[in-house]
Write a structure and sequence with these properties.
single chain, alpha/beta, Carbamate kinase, Alpha-Beta Plaits, globular
Length: about 350
């Protein structure tokens, strides 16, 4: 058995029900028979939003009751720290339940919050960043054959828990993998790996079996939701191998590593903004490939009655600004003209070894 662990990040859908938690416990048990495992747990889908909303409701309710000379006083109480403590309970619950499931099937496991796992944070509450990780306790548990189940989305800041902001559990997993010199970070999600476009927008998008780090970083920077952009960039910085798994399979749907083959690897990312516009970005793994297609893609959009409001340079390709109402149609047009017409790296030859 290798002494270097694999870090497995379990998304909210993977832990959405008692049955799913049990299934993921069995996945971790199978994996731990081959190599040491560290699990990183997300809150169940919708729980974080519910807790954030509840904290906001309490703030509004409390503020509405302020009257007299107190109404004009600034709030100097550490309300951000208290909100973070409430919001972080979502991950505490799932990590505990996953460790419980592992113990029930005969696998020794222990749940750890950010303080217990040595994850130190800095910055503001609600948007902290991981400052450093003291992994001594995790390494001792691994040497004993125990699976540490770590709460994602949080760090320990001056004696208080501080949440990391949206996508923080992805960053937790990559940061832990880097600190522990892991063989890879594996992400278990409802999505079946990387595809050439968001499957909710382009139903005939193609699977991408392998991609280089810089391609994933460009995709996530342009709005693709497969993993948080900070996690993708951190993995690229350290050359950490990533793998993406569906809920149904132990085998990776996509592997991301520094020297992944990428002939003709192309994709389209879509980001709808709150100001009524959308950004459609054509991305290629080959420098200059997507930029060279800018004029033809603009003409394809114009021919379809969707003239771009603006065209901007972006990482690995051009970004077309259109009305949010046109985002689905524009994504399909760019995908058809840029990806399907010219082929993509979804070919079997790209599958990682």
């Amino acid at each position: 058995m290798s002494c270097r662990p694999v870090v497995v990040k379990l998304g909210g859908d993977a832990l959405a029900s008692p049955e799913r938690i049990a299934a993921e416990a069995h996945r971790l048990a199978r994996l731990s028979a081959r190599e040491p495992v560290v699990a990183v747990a997300s809150a169940r889908r919708g729980v974080t939003d519910h807790l954030l909303g509840l904290a906001a409701e309490v703030r509004r309710a409390a503020s509405s009751g302020i009257s007299g000379d107190r109404a004009g006083r600034p709030n100097r109480a550490p309300s951000g720290a208290e909100a973070d403590r409430a919001v972080a309970t979502g991950e505490v619950v799932t990590a505990s339940l996953l460790a419980l499931a592992l113990n029930q099937i005969g696998v020794e496991a222990v749940s750890l919050d950010a303080r217990e796992a040595g994850i130190l944070g800095s910055g503001r509450f609600g948007g902290a960043r991981i400052h450093s990780i003291a992994g001594d306790r995790l390494e001792r548990l691994l040497k004993r054959g125990v699976i540490p189940v770590v709460t994602g989305f949080q760090g320990w800041k001056r004696g208080r828990v501080a949440t990391l902001g949206r996508g923080g559990t992805d960053t937790s997993a990559v940061a832990l993998a880097v600190a522990l010199r892991a063989t890879r970070a594996a992400f278990v999600k409802d999505a079946d790996g990387l595809r050439t476009a968001d499957p909710k927008l382009v139903t005939d998008g193609l699977p991408i079996s392998a991609a280089p780090h810089r391609f994933l970083s460009a995709l996530t920077a342009a709005g693709a939701k497969i993993v948080h952009v900070d996690a993708a960039r951190l993995a690229e910085q350290h050359g950490l191998r990533l793998s993406f798994h569906s809920l149904q399979s132990d085998e990776p749907a996509t592997s991301v590593f520094r020297e992944a083959p990428f002939a003709h690897l192309r994709a389209v990312a879509t980001l709808v903004l709150e100001n009524g516009i959308a950004e459609i970005t054509a991305i290629s793994a080959e420098p200059g490939d997507a930029a060279a297609a800018t004029e033809s893609l603009r003409d394809a959009l114009i021919a379809a009655g969707i003239p771009p409001r603006d065209i901007q340079p972006a990482a690995n390709g051009p970004r077309f600004i259109v009305a949010a109402a046109d985002s689905v149609a524009a994504t399909r047009i760019v995908h058809a003209a840029f990806v399907q017409r010219h082929g993509t790296g979804a070919a079997p030859a790209l599958r990682a070894s």
